[in-house]
Amino acid sequence: MTTDSTTAVEADPRDRVHAVRHRYAHRGDRASVQDWAYTVYLAVILGAVYVAPVVYLVRTTEALVSLPTAEAATPAACLVAAAVVGGAQLTGRFWGPLVLKPFLLHVFMSTDLSPTDYLGTIARRRLAYAGTGTLLLLCTATFLATDLYDRPGSALLPQGLAVAAGIAAVAPAAWLWGQVRTVRENALLASAVAGAATVVALLGRSTLLGGGGPWLLTVLLAVAAALLGRSALRSLRTVDLTR
């Protein structure tokens, strides 16, 4: 590798952001091996004492929510989607994906990097983590509270998984939107989500869609995730993290 190529790599904004985060993560007061071992120990104890018995009791009793058909599942899915999006927006107002440690924020703001360079890298990583966590949480909640997984051969199962993936895609975008957009814009988005969820729920309960309500909801969620995510990421250049 030549000197010019080395300089080019070092000057890349993404590499510079990664270098700062790496140095900060490996500072002297980071968690030790004993700290991580104790955390794992607590997680194992919690799983054995609380999680496992709860899962056993839930799965050996009648499902809390029965989803026999797509017509019955669509309103429930719309309610969950609207609640998750609204909750993500509200969370973003108080603790969004761009909340940084004061030292890291000071370091980044003291460089010649634009907010889009360092915030974009951080936001995309955290949104990916949030999307994965949301998907796992939704699948777990569906497994515990409904009878969707009790019928593996049902056509409703892939529809339910698609809806879960759609919600997991739009939730991180709504989380970022809640932080970078104004209260008025968040209120407008919440109203639009509530209205769209109501319309899809009513259509899904009818025979007009022929059992395709979950697919319609999935398409709308995918479109919303793309539009919200793109718009929110464009707002990174104007966000004020010092407020």
Can you walk me through this structure?
- This protein is mostly helical and 243 residues long.
- The chain has one domain.
- Helix content is 75%, strand content 0%.
- The chain contains 9 helices and no strands.
- The longest helix is centred in the middle third of the chain and has 31 residues, at 115-145.
- The two termini are 43 Å apart.
What is the gyration radius calculated from CA atoms? 22 Å
The termini sit apart by 43 Å
Order of helices and strands: HHHHHHHHH
Structural class: mainly alpha
Poorly predicted runs of 5 or more residues: 1-9
SS elements, strand count: 0
The shape, in one word, is: flat
The count of domains is: 1
Helix content: over 70%
Helical segment tally? 9
Largest sheet: none
- Mean of pLDDT: 81
**Strand content bin:** under 5%
Topology overview:
Elements: H1 3-11, H2 13-25, H3 33-59, H4 70-94, H5 102-109, H6 115-145, H7 156-180, H8 183-205, H9 213-234
Features:
disordered N terminus; 9 helices; single chain; 0% strand; mainly alpha; flat; 243 residues
In brief, what are we looking at here?
The chain is mainly α and 243 residues long.
